DNA sequence: GAGCAACTATAGCCGCAGCAATATTCCCTG
DNA sequence: CAGGGAATATTGCTGCGGCTATAGTTGCTC
């Protein structure tokens, strides 16, 4: 029990990261639900809204989220049924289709975002003084860049740097 | 586009936290799979093994993981079928039952842990010099303590402080 | 000691999401 | 321009896990 694995600083470190992350996720989910959104739906709304024309091809949307292409198909199904999104055929490539944010989708996002930002501030960024926060973010950025989830990532990147295949459309 | 929400420092911050966390999760999942474990199964194995007698009542196990009680029932079903765990009736309370780690379960954990620790070091703790790491962990601890996932948390706590109801057993 | 509320584990039902298979379309090569 | 390989979206199938209902057990109160 002297060099118990459970006391290993690495276990402690990863525990802190995951608990902080999970705790925030739970707060977010609760607030999203108040506005009739699931976490994935919010993420989809964010990704699409920040994209040019408030739209993205299904594949590209999948690449920018934590979802597979079939997962995207179903989320877009639900959100289209709820009027938040709309499918649009790609004129130049008849295999592709766009998911486009509707006015209702934009409104829903606008209605959800203030509370979301407030929660981030209350439970995360506001918990630390500016210097400590910078320090934390620097560390996270280092880790993020190292582990680079590839498709899962990109939230901070203004453009995915990929610009995969939205060329002809 | 001047005060675009997407460029809000809070969005950037939470993006970094989630991407780092998700990236590490993905690495972990891949390594767990090499040893025939899912992330939840690994978590269950860790929680039980660090508990006195390598066992925990189903309810307490649920409280210490990200699972509901019915979720625990099913995970334990699977792991019992695979020989990693074993159910044991609680002698003093016939409603309760224990999940106990078997020798095979311990062996599986021992076989999985070194690689797990190595991944943590390679992609997380080893990415930063000691001072920066301390800084990062301090920040995370602050956030963790604030958001305190309640049941979901506890990974770093040697004892859950609760010591819920394992009294009579 | 009978009744009742709280607790414990489980089973039914459901939605979600990944993988693999499929149909369609595109593009490149000969 | 014919044919084959790659890309795109969708669907079937599966496993996972939460919520709710249920059955059994406990302890408390009258």
UniProtKB/TrEMBL annotation, chains A, B:
<dbReference type="InterPro" id="IPR039422">
    <property type="entry name" value="MarR/SlyA-like"/>
</dbReference>
<dbReference type="InterPro" id="IPR036388">
    <property type="entry name" value="WH-like_DNA-bd_sf"/>
</dbReference>
<feature type="domain" description="HTH marR-type">
    <location>
        <begin position="10"/>
        <end position="145"/>
    </location>
</feature>
<dbReference type="InterPro" id="IPR000835">
    <property type="entry name" value="HTH_MarR-typ"/>
</dbReference>
<dbReference type="Pfam" id="PF12802">
    <property type="entry name" value="MarR_2"/>
</dbReference>
<protein>
    <submittedName>
        <fullName>MarR family transcriptional regulator</fullName>
    </submittedName>
</protein>
<dbReference type="InterPro" id="IPR036390">
    <property type="entry name" value="WH_DNA-bd_sf"/>
</dbReference>
<feature type="region of interest" description="Disordered">
    <location>
        <begin position="148"/>
        <end position="169"/>
    </location>
</feature>
């Amino acid at each position: 029990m002297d060099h118990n694995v459970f006391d290993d600083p690495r276990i402690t470190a990863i525990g802190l990261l995951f608990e902080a992350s999970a705790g925030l996720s739970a707060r977010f989910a609760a607030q999203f639900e108040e506005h009739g959104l699931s976490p994935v739906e919010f993420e989809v709304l964010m990704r699409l809204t920040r994209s040019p024309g408030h739209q993205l091809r299904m594949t590209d949307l999948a690449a920018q989220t934590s979802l597979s292409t079939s997962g995207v198909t179903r989320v877009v199904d639900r959100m289209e049924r709820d009027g938040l999104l709309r499918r649009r055929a790609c004129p130049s490539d008849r295999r592709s289709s766009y998911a486009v944010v509707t006015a209702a989708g934009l409104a829903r996002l606008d209605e959800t975002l203030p509370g979301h930002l407030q929660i981030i501030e209350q439970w995360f960024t506001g918990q630390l003084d500016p210097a400590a926060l910078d320090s934390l973010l620097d560390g996270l950025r280092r880790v993020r860049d190292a582990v680079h989830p590839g498709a899962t990532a990109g939230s901070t990147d203004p453009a995915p740097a990929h610009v995969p295949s939205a060329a002809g459309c």
